[in-house]
Amino acid sequence: MYVQVGTKIQEMGKQIYDVHRKMYAFIRTIVNKNKYLHLIKREAFWCILESQKLEILQRFA
Asked: What is the top-level taxon of the source organism (predicted)?
């Protein structure tokens, strides 16, 4: 039981980290192309990341 829960939490963490990494790379490429986007980059990044986290958490619930 505890091992299963630990494994699920580990998988969740890994998925959240992967999403985080992909989103950051994606936003960085956009920002490099347009210098004005750095103003909205951080807000957009956190909004998308939060929605992805919720999606992942709901999948494991």
From this structure: Eukaryota
Instruction: Round to whole Å and give the CA distance between 26 and 31.
Output: 9
- Give CA–CA dist 58/13, Å, rounded: 13
Query: Which amino acid makes up residue 49?
Result: L
pTM (2 d.p.): 0.43
Q: Identify the sign of the CA torsion 25, 27, 33, 37.
A: negative
Q: What is the mean pLDDT of residues 30-57?
A: 72
- Range of 49's domain? 14-60
Q: What are phi and psi of 4, to 5 degrees?
A: -60, -45
Residue 8 lies inside a defined structural domain of this protein = no
- Give 19-31 pLDDT, tens digit per residue: 878 877 877 777 6
Q: Structural domain tally of the chain?
A: 1
